[in-house]
Amino acid sequence: MAKLMTEQRFASPDDVYQLLIDSHRDLTPDQSTRLNAKLILLLANHIGDAEVLAEALRVARQGVE
Amino acid sequence: MHATFSYPKYSFTPSEEQRTGTVRRHPVVVIGAGPVGLTAALDFARKGVPVVVLDAEDTVSVGSRAVCYAKRALEVWDRLGVGQRMIDKGVVWKIGKVFNGDRMVYQFDLLPEPDHKIPAFINLQQYYLEDFLVTEARKSELIDLRWLSRVISAKQEADHVVLQVETPDGVHAVEADWVIACDGAKSSVRKMLGLEFQGEVFKDRFLIADVVMKADFPAERWFWFDPPFHRKQSALLHMQPDNVWRLDFQLGWDADPEEEKKPERVIPRVQAMLGADTPFELEWVSVYTFQCRRLERFRHGRILFAGDSAHQVSPFGARGANSGVPDADNLVWKLALVLDGKAPDSLLDSYSDERVTAAKENILNSTRSTDFITPKSEMSRVFRDAVLELAVDQPFARSLVNSGRLSTPTTYTDSPLNTPDSDAFAGRMVPGAPATDAPVERDGHAGWLMEALDGRFTVLYAAAGDEMGGPVPAEVAEALDGLAAGPLPLAWHAVTERRRGIAGELVDSAGRLRERYDLTPGSVYLIRPDQHIAARWRRFDADALSAALNRATGR
């Protein structure tokens, strides 16, 4: 069974975090929401595994409600 | 409004039982002469079962209503002798295109493989379809069509049902061993029985405008999200016979249905779509909302529900009539066997099980399409719009675009009537699957496998080579002839590569049948009267075949 990888995987974590933040620069909250939705769809397809996605969604939802 | 069709008026003739004040017991009464009820009646007549059909009205469907008829429903009608007339009159199509704004983002082909008798889809106004079915039903002495006959109560007794029927001549009682309620989404029989119809109601409204015009759009399904002529909503275009075009506009929940039906509201919408200089006339206008709901079970004692009375879906995907017709197809052979004493009435529970499975599948697909077309939350709309935006350049996103997943037949994977495979087979013809077609030659004429699956159980035997004792070994032929002469309606056919002179042989010279059923010499398929696969083996075994027949008939 495919498993969601949660250990640190980036060579340079700070660069990746900055990439995410910078991509939203100058966007309105609505535009950012659109960007995020497209990003999620692109990454979900890249992962290509519904089980991993389901696990990621489960973890992401923790503490939200 | 313009009329391309003149509605027939069927006259009321009091039945003998009403005139003479006697109460008769009929084996089967079908309530509702719509596509599903008429299909059931034709199938009963084919099987030699007399049937009374009661309908509250005296004409066919008013308005084009259901327009898209799928391959599987057409195959059922073809078996009943009316499919070709529908195909000849209808607009045959298989390509769907989806646009976002004015850009095409997705295209699908519903029948990508060649060599099938029946097309993927036709478009035909429901009134034509019902007219053809009524015309066919009137040819049969076994079908007693009673118009202006409204069922006002239904009472189940231990071994029959008593219906009170209101006609222009008053109310009288009709008794039936079995009742099939095909009385539509607003089924009064369902209400009489107090049955819950559970599911979702969607908060959106759609306008249907059927227009008559000369246009050169292709015979394809075109669906728009956010088109330039109808911003922020969806629209649909479909060709029908007689230069009638189905236009469908999403209006939103706040639209006033009475206002939106007025020509002064409809005509500007149509002009925006077609261009101000395209002449057209309105034929039929309707504003609808929709639901995805079903009964928990389709059998209630001696009353069986079929079609919209049992399950209702949104129109996206053409899964209404196209799932009602297979209900009739599934039910009639079972009930005919029960009436004939050849199967226990528990076989009818499998009708409910199998068709509830199909209804769940249809409701799931229909609900998903509706969630895409009418997003229920802000985030649902954000994802929908993101999919549409990505679909322009990103191939993966195109498969997520959901403007309706069009009706395909259900495979009864978990049906207790199936005999699970004991041998390995490749391909789609698993037990429970609807049989797929292939070209074959019969009696020297080009024909189709589906024509050989004629409403009886059918055994296909893939002829073996001479090393196995000739194309059909004598003991195999003897066993199959024995079954064909037995109590169950059954026929068998040898499948040969070239003409071998065997009675009933299906000559598979193109090899499509062998390919689609993964046949090897000696392979055997048992196919049900409704053309679903019941069992298959690599080698003939008379005992296994008998056991599979028992299983498929609930014995």
Question: Could you describe the 3D structure shown?
Answer:
The complex is a heterodimer of chains A (65) and B (555). Chain A is mainly alpha-helical and 65 residues long. Chain A has a domain at 28-65. Chain A has helices at 13-22, 29-47, 50-61. Chain A is globular and about 35 Å long. The mean pLDDT of chain A is 95. Chain B is an alpha/beta fold. Chain B has 3 domains: 16-88 and 117-196 and 292-368, 3-Layer(bba) Sandwich (FAD/NAD(P)-binding domain); 200-287, D-Amino Acid Oxidase, Chain A, domain 2; 439-552, Glutaredoxin, CATH 3.40.30.120. Chain B is built from 16 helices and 26 strands. In chain B, the strands form 5 sheets. In chain B, strands 1, 2, 8, 9, 10, 11, 17 and 18 form an 8-stranded mixed sheet that branches. An 8-stranded mixed sheet of chain B has the order 6-5-13-14-15-12-16-19, with helices on both faces. In chain B, α3 (71-79) crosses α4. At the A-B interface, α2 of A face α11 of B.
